[in-house]
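During the second half of the funding period, the structural biology subgroup turned its attention to how the target accommodates small molecules. The most pressing case was GLP, which had performed well in the primary screen but for which no bound structure existed. We therefore specified the complex as follows and requested a full 3D prediction, including the ligand pose.
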Amino acid sequence: MKFIITKDYEEMSRKAANIFAAQIIAKPDSVLGLATGSTPIGTYDRLADLCAQGDIDFSKISSFNLDEYCGLSPEHDQSYRYFMNQHLFSRVNIRMEETHVPNGLADDMEKEGLAYDAMIREYGGIDLQILGIGNTGHIGFNEPDDAFPTSTHKVELAQKTIEANSRFFNSIDEVPKYAITMGMLSIMNAKKIILVANGKGKADILYESCFGPVTPKVPASILQLHPDVTIVADKDAASVMLEKVPELL
Ligand code: GLP
């Protein structure tokens, strides 16, 4: 694992966007793995700016998102398809038909998951995957479990996740209880991964994920086994790591 520790959210977003920009410049037809949540919004803002300035070009890019809530349509303002259109896709010159988000309305989630993974394989796998991290240590929506989930699959959200994500809904009762998420196979097969984290609330789980035991009880800990992971964290999110592993600075 490599660590980039930044002074604040702004710098975290800039550094993460720079890694994306380098990827897009080096390989204009890259397959990008994309994430939602509040953490990557600043990264997407920077990428939109770089595209508007003509520094990066999304015309040959394709993308696969990590996850989607079950039961929300693409038009629902809390669906992850809506989020991606709003924060990135409508602001860059990506071909909409080359943007993929799991279908949260699919009748058969198992079939949808297998088809999603097959499509990722057809595209040659993900070149660069961005991840956030949930309070439970989830990546995508892979919640703590007895084993690491492999394929894209339907998942029951942890109560802690429902509570954390309720801030985006009118009430906690509106938060979907299920989601469809990429599993660990497509994530771990990505050639390069960056994980972004900011704020004190992520400090303990980030330390556990990077330096604790590799266990499905802390889903992000699997990243320790990937050969090319960069953690881009602001100093608050990195605070427990810096206290316990001061060599990181
Ligand atoms: C959601 C997403 C995750 C994301 C997490 C953290 O539950 N499914 O991909 O990493 O929230 O969100 P935030 O960045 O808002 O803390």
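Two results from this model are relevant to the next phase. The chain has a mean pLDDT of 97. The pocket of GLP is lined by residues 35-39, 66-67, 132-134, 140-141, 161, 165 (CB under 6 Å).
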